[in-house]
Design goal:
Its cofactor is heme. Helix 6 packs across helix 12 and helix 7 packs across helix 20. This protein is an alpha+beta fold. It has one domain: Cytochrome p450, CATH 1.10.630.10. The longest helix has 26 residues. The chain has 20 helices and 10 strands. The strands form 4 sheets. Strands 1-2-8-5 form a 4-stranded mixed sheet, with helices on one face. It has a two-stranded antiparallel ribbon with strand order 3-4. Strand 6 and strand 7 form a beta hairpin. The structure holds protoporphyrin IX containing FE and 2-acetamido-2-deoxy-beta-D-glucopyranose (NAG) (2 copies). The site of protoporphyrin IX containing FE has 26 residues, from helix 6, helix 14 and helix 20.
């Protein structure tokens, strides 16, 4: 008798404790006068995974119309803050920049560059800050800073001019042999050679099977390096790797091996007095003793910055140029307007150059509209809070997961009026001779604040120069009857469906 009563009592108190714990877990502690951010009801254990589906940026943009700029969902048992609206995002990432500069500690991040990545690692302290400064300096020196040894304005300009001409020849060969081409596969090789030259100088392989196989398969990376990767929220999935996770692991291994070999060669004939590329600059920093403002950076954390720079500089710029070509064949009248502008401002006797940028506002407006309309980087990389904070009156505890919906900012009805129209003209001032700066600053694709992209200027200049040189000489099209599908495929960077039917014809014969 006494025993069963004791058992009952034990059972009852266990159930009570469990219920109490569940309620506590669902309603976290919030200081007086503040509220938790609102959000829809979610399933126990799963949270909102099923709601997010295949296109989380679209679902979360819709939810923001109902719940506002600061809302909360759950993935598995992890609460996730979702920010929308440019003003709210600016408040968080810029005004309260230090609160929101963290990155979450994710399983998938440990697979990238053996866990040494600066971009994809939870560190946001002094070592991260020193690495970021170092990467930014080395990158600028060998891309956009003026190059004293050359007649062109900078390394970037030299490399892009060379590779754009090579690309034009390759496209014409393909046209002669096959009659059409897949723009992605052609563009990725050119962009790889540009970022390869800036990172490694002469040591970047001209053409090797290994290199081609890596650069053509970055989708194995971007399909998994997403804010919503299930393996980061349901750790048990680590032991049941999906095909996508296996592709991701294999890609990361091949990528590190490939770059490691080039860096090793570089190290052997490294000459401190003649630094000619980003790797050289980083190796020099290793030798110097890596004390940047008192924070020691371990050697492998310096060398692995190359992986961050090469990876980011390859995939994003390729995706942007490739999307541009798809929009051009879909909108031939916009292509004609860009070409008319090129003919008027530059003519046909000389090649376009970086310094022509301000005189070519229509091309500039076209690039801005590609960023906005495609929003091919739909979310910032995942962020996390570094301390307890508040935003718009809502309480957000430390180490809280944060998604920032760039796609929503770029398609906000209140800002753009007709967000789904592809209309470069929207960025021109009334007389059409310049870019409306107020409006162009409302496009969000490079992130904001302390983690903002370090390659923004380089990327904008590179995309501009490639397109200007290509469009001066070639007209892009698809044969009548070919349907061009521009539905983005969700990922860290969103790609367009591949199309093998793109054609290019010379606009005039070159003497
Ligand atoms: C159109 C091209 C590009 C786009 C749309 C883009 C976009 C982004 C975005 C959204 C972030 C995350 C920012 C955040 O969390 O707020 C980022 C970070 C970063 N980007 Fe880019 N990027 C581009 C090109 C480049 C290039 C060319 C490089 C270097 C060669 C680069 C290097 C980086 C690095 C190193 C970070 C990490 C910064 C950190 O964690 O502190 N990106 N980029
Ligand atoms: C770190 O040092 C550099 C130059 O040595 C300086 O420009 C920078 O302001 C310093 N940063 C901090 C946080 O002290
Ligand atoms: C720029 O765009 C904004 C918003 O559409 C508009 O209010 C402003 O008048 C424009 N400025 C110029 C110089 O055209």
């Amino acid at each position: 008798m006494a025993l069963s009563q004791a058992t009952e009592l034990l059972l009852a108190s266990t159930v009570f404790c469990l219920v109490f714990w569940v309620v506590r877990a669902w309603q976290p502690w919030v200081p007086k006068g503040l509220k938790s951010p609102p959000g829809p009801w979610g399933w126990p254990l799963l949270g909102h995974v099923l709601t997010l589906g295949k296109n989380p940026h679209l679902v979360l943009a819709r939810l923001s119309q109902r719940y506002g700029d600061v809302l909360q969902i759950r993935i598995g048992s992890t609460p996730v803050l979702v920010l929308s609206g440019l003003d709210t995002i600016r408040q968080a990432l810029v005004q309260q920049g230090d609160d929101f500069k963290g990155r979450p500690d994710l399983y998938s991040f440990t697979l990238i560059t053996d866990g040494h990545s600066m971009t994809f690692s939870p560190d946001s302290g002094p070592v991260w800050a020193a690495r970021r400064r170092l990467a930014q300096n080395a990158l600028n020196t060998f891309s956009i800073a003026s190059d004293p040894a050359s007649s062109s304005s900078c390394y970037l300009e030299d490399h892009v001019r060379e590779e754009a001409e090579a690309l034009i020849s390759r496209l014409q060969e393909q046209m002669a042999e096959v009659g059409s081409f897949d723009p992605y596969n052609q563009v990725v090789l050119s962009v790889a050679k540009v970022i390869g030259a800036m990172c490694f100088g002469q040591r970047f392989p001209k053409e090797s099977e290994e290199m081609i196989s890596i650069i053509r398969n970055t989708h194995d990376f971007v399909e998994s390096a997403i804010s919503t990767n299930p393996v980061d929220f349901f750790p048990i999935l680590q032991y049941f790797p999906t095909p996508a996770l296996q592709r991701f692991k294999a890609f990361n291994q091949k990528f590190v091996q490939f770059l490691q070999k080039i860096i090793q060669e570089h190290y052997q004939d490294f000459d401190e007095n003649s630094i000619q590329d980003i790797t050289g600059a980083l190796l020099k920093h290793c030798k110097k003793g890596s004390r940047a403002n008192g924070s020691h950076i371990p050697r492998e954390k310096i060398v692995s910055l190359i992986n961050d720079i090469f990876g980011a500089g390859l995939d994003t710029v390729t995706t942007a140029i490739s999307w541009s070509l798809m929009y051009l064949v879909k909108n031939p009248e916009k292509q004609r307007k860009i070409q008319e502008e090129l003919d008027t401002v530059i003519g046909r006797a000389r090649q376009p150059q970086l310094s022509d940028r301000l005189q070519l506002p229509y091309l500039e407006a076209f690039i801005l509209e590609i960023f906005r309309h495609s929003s091919f980087v739909p979310f910032n990389l995942p962020r996390s809070t570094t301390r307890d904070t508040t935003l718009n009156g809502f309480y957000i505890p430390r180490k809280h997961f944060v998604f920032i919906n760039q796609w929503q900012v770029n398609h906000d009805q209140k800002v753009w009026g007709d967000p789904f129209e592809f209309r470069p003209e929207r960025f021109l001032t009334a007389d059409g001779t310049a870019i409306n700066k107020t409006l162009s600053e409302k496009v969000m694709i490079f992130g904001l604040g302390k983690r903002r992209c370090i390659g923004e200027v380089l990327a904008k200049w590179e995309i501009f120069l490639f397109l200007a040189i290509l469009l001066q000489q070639l007209e892009f099209s698809v044969p009548a009857g070919v349907k061009v599908d521009l539905t983005p495929i969700y990922g860290l960077t969103m790609k367009h469906p591949r199309c093998e039917h793109v054609q290019a014809r010379p606009r005039f014969s070159i003497k």
